[in-house]
Amino acid sequence: QVHLVESGGGLVQPGGSLRLSCAASGFTFSGANMRWYRQAPGKEREWVAFISPTSTTTNYADSVKGRFTISRDNAKNTVYLEMNSLKPEDTAVYYCYARNYWGPGTQVTVSS
Hints:
By secondary structure, the protein is mostly beta strands. 0% of the residues lie in helices and 51% in strands. The protein has strands spanning 3-7, 10-12, 18-25, 34-39, 46-51, 58-60, 68-73, 78-83, 92-98, 101-102, 106-110.
């Protein structure tokens, strides 16, 4: 059974930083593409970032490019999302996605 659990969300001021983690189990993590998505209140869920199994390829939505960094540790079955220069419009529930499964999400709120 695929299991994804996000953590690291919270309340941060504009311009601040957060690091999200997603712990994965139930599948061969080292062979899986991993993605982060987010869903803001009243909006559809949107893709944020992608990383290939060996971290060779990463991609980002234009709205986060240059501010967010996706990474992974295959020894720990964990994918990360480092978020810098956060803006109020980054406020959303952030989800980890793999193998057609979603984690429960972690709330990120950017507000002064």
